[in-house]
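Supplementary Note 2. Why include the ligand at all?

Several targets in our set were suspected to adopt different conformations when bound, so apo predictions alone were not considered sufficient. For every target with a known small-molecule partner we therefore ran a joint prediction. The input for IPE is given below.
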Amino acid sequence: MEIKEQINRDKLPDHVALIMDGNGRWARKQGFARVKGHEKGVGAVKDTVEAAAELGIRFLTLYAFSTENWNRPKYEIDALMKLLVQAIHNEMKSLMDNNIRLTTIGDLSTLPAKSQKELQRAMNATSANTGLTLILALSYSSRWEIVEATRKLAEDVRIGKIAPEDIDSKLFASQLATAGIPDPELLIRTSGESRISNFLLWQIAYTELYFTNTLWPDFTKDDFFRAILDFQSRERRFGLTSEQINQVEATKKKRIK
Ligand code: IPE
Ligand code: IPE
Ligand code: MG
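The joint prediction is reproduced in token form.
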């Protein structure tokens, strides 16, 4: 049976987050410059977005450029920004045809004006789409986001809008770039690195982590489906015991009947 057919459509994660890593190593292995790997990586983005939309996943967050990535060589940054503009431009029709809404998290003000403009245009054009929400993390880092949220809350306290004791995890989450988006149930990282690299630290408190050795440009729809299947085989306990979880499941089933 095909991998996709093995997926239980009733147990899909609402939100999948993905650290697309390994473009540079992919290129080097083929004897190319790093930028070639980024170019090839765009194809994997297309396939993955399509795969998520086909399954009916509601949110897909792709880590495209981190705050720390600004420290890379200028020509690589320029190439990445150019690729971003090109890819969005080329994919507009496909986003519309597939009912995909594009949004971003991150400090967009640090991006080149052209990238900002293209992104804004695409976000406006797709804002009424009701299928998959594709969230691009651009100039994003979790510590940046958490510090920003803290600043906003501190300001609200200063002007008397809220009291310090009003701050709870719900209010805090409402100040993050991901406000209104459910926490990811599954986080995938490619390229064999087992680290988070400043991505969604707050949001992944109870997320299932999936690491694969596949380099991002080689990542296929089936790789995505495999990660979903693996996710579905796990027992998410949220601090409870296995027995408690089984009981909750049994009660749910009874209610459905
Ligand atoms: C991921 O691939 C893309 C970005 C971080 C923009 P890398 O460029 O990090 O590739 P490696 O990790 O050096 O192989
Ligand atoms: C994480 O990859 C950031 C993105 C995928 C955009 P990096 O390649 O920047 O992460 P490190 O340096 O290996 O931790
Ligand atoms: Mg990398």
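Strands lie at 15-19, 59-66, 101-105, 133-140, 186-189, 208-211. The chain has a mean pLDDT of 97. Comparable summaries for the other entries are listed in the accompanying table.
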